[in-house]
Amino acid sequence: MQHIIEGFLSFQKEVFPQRKELFRSLASSQNPKALFISCSDSRLVPELVTQQEPGQLFVIRNAGNIVPSFGPEPGGVSATIEYAVVALGVTDIVICGHSNCGAMKAIADNANLDPMPAVSHWLRYSDAAKAVVDQKTWDNPTDKVNAMVQENVIAQLNNVKTHPSVAVGLRNNAIRLHGWVYDIESGDIRALDKDSKSFVSLSDNPQVYFE
After folding, report:
1. Does 195 count as an annotated binding residue?
2. Would you say 39 and 123 are in contact if contact means Cβ atoms under 8 Å apart?
3. How many other C-beta atoms lie within 10 A of the C-beta of residue 158?
4. pLDDT tens-digit series, residues 38-52
5. Binding site annotation covers 41?
6. Is residue 188 annotated as involved in ligand binding?
7. Model pTM score
8. Would you say residue 151 lies in a domain?
9. Residue 21 sits in which domain range?
10. Do residues 67 and 164 both lie within one domain?
11. Into how many domains does the chain fold?
């Protein structure tokens, strides 16, 4: 914990004074243009990967970058999506998975999650992705996990479209959806292309989006 406190002290002493005007401008309001939904994994830092400043990304993070379908009793993810779209007026929603995701590996490996019943319940929101992946026989466990990561991004994109605020935004061409997979080792991102329905290099195809 001490190194975290020391990091704050360094921020307060060295970083904040240099960025004082930025934080002053953000003190009373924010105007992010994108909602970024990613895994809680400590190796994926949305603002670092996208080089965005404070105030530019509205972020949801949870195990497996999961978006439950809209239901009669909306939870925290649903409320945050609605706020981002209706109150903040974001124009882009990114769902970003990543390589070697522990949540997706647990699903791919059929891991025993009995000691973590809440996690087990949460990962059921990835059942659609698991159903697709399980249709194929996998010789390489790593390939199966990679497929699970990609299919989960697709499943969560389909889930986010069930949210009324997102559905309205899509119908009015006010929102675009993006599906990304970040590779931790290389720093690359592969994005889901709406035309080919496959993941392509974002570096080579910076204009690509899902819907």
Report:
1. no
2. no
3. 16
4. 999 999 999 999 999
5. yes
6. no
7. 0.95
8. yes
9. 1-30
10. yes
11. 2
